[in-house]
């Protein structure tokens, strides 16, 4: 059966390290070329969103994360100037290693002062929501 | 820009009433024709997942809900026998009114003993996750 057209499904990964730094890439391509962004990309048909999140993280940064926690779903029709995408964002703690840029990433690095950076797309919102989630978790302990 | 092919994006709504009943439809069409299912359907291009959730609920049951809370994202490639879909599921409290079947629904009703029913797709899992979310919320009060 042919499905009706729906927004393109993407995933983004917020990976913190033990020091509270966030793993960001520099975008190699338009839109937002050169900007910091969360690692992520399109979900393949036949792949879960969690698997896509891990695959894109690995491709763009060489890094892996432990358990993934859902942050939110971001589907505003104007969030990507290329067309309507819907991002499923996950939070994970990065395993040890050094980021290494690959695929669509011109750079991949741990960013300390990420609140001061202008991020691509709605990634500042995703990061703010991830922080809220981390704080809620910390409050439970 | 043409996006790569991604799983089709859908949304499902878990609406409880004050008595703990769940709003379910009977599916009019294959797959799972005649089975109980959560109201839901495909997200239109240009529409947020939250708006799609409210639209599908209204079309299939005539009902409206208050604030929506994200339950989870369900993207197993085999969850729909027609092809790969990814469902974003929301929880909401139904506003007053009487369900009235429309669109893809052969019936729309408040179901009390929903744990005993065989539900379409992975909707039993979505309902179980919704219940966990409700319990977590209740524990916070």
Describe this structure in words.
- Two copies of one chain form a homodimer.
- Chain A has helices at 49-61, 123-140, and strands at 8-16, 22-27, 36-37, 40-42, 69-74, 85-93, 105-111.
- By secondary structure, chain A is of the alpha+beta class.
- Chain A has a four-stranded mixed sheet with strand order 4-1-6-5, with helices on both faces. A three-stranded antiparallel sheet of chain A has the order 3-2-7, with no helix packed on it.
- The longest helix of chain A is centred in the C-terminal third of the chain and has 18 residues, at 123-140.
- Chains A and B meet through strand 1, strand 5 and strand 6 of A and strand 1, strand 5 and strand 6 of B.
Q: What are the main properties of this structure?
A:
three-stranded antiparallel sheet, four-stranded mixed sheet, alpha+beta, homodimer, 2 helices, 22% helix, 141 residues
Topology, please?
The structure is a homodimer of 141-residue chains.
Chain A: E1 8-16, E2 22-27, E3 36-37, E4 40-42, H1 49-61, E5 69-74, E6 85-93, E7 105-111, H2 123-140
Tally of DSSP β-strands of chain A: 7
**Biggest sheet descriptor of chain A:** 4 strands, mixed
N-to-C order of helices and strands of chain A: EEEEHEEEH
* Global Rg of chain A: 15 Å
Distance between the termini of chain A: 48 Å
Strand order of the largest sheet of chain A: 4-1-6-5
The total count of helices of chain A amounts to 2
Indicate the proportion of strand residues of chain A. Answer: 25-35%
- Name the structural class of chain A: alpha+beta
What oligomeric state do these chains adopt?
homodimer
The most extensive interface, with participating residues per chain, is: A-B, 30 and 30 residues
Low-pLDDT ranges of chain A = none
Helix content of chain A: 10-25%
Shape estimate of chain A = globular
Chain-averaged pLDDT of chain A = 93
């Amino acid at each position: 059966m042919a499905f009706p057209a729906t927004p393109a499904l993407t995933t983004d990964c917020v990976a913190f390290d033990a020091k509270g730094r966030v793993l960001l890439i520099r975008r190699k391509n338009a839109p937002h070329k050169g900007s910091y962004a969360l690692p992520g990309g399109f979900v393949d048909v036949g792949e879960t969103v969690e698997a896509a999140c891990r695959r894109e993280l690995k491709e763009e940064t060489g890094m892996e994360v432990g358990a993934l926690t859902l942050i939110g779903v971001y589907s505003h029709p104007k969030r990507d100037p290329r067309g309507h995408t819907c991002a499923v964002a996950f939070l994970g703690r990065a395993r040890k290693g050094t980021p290494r840029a690959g695929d669509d990433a011109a750079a991949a690095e741990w960013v300390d002062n990420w609140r001061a950076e202008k991020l691509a797309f709605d990634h500042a919102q995703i990061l703010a929501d991830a922080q809220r989630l981390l704080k809620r978790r910390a409050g439970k302990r």
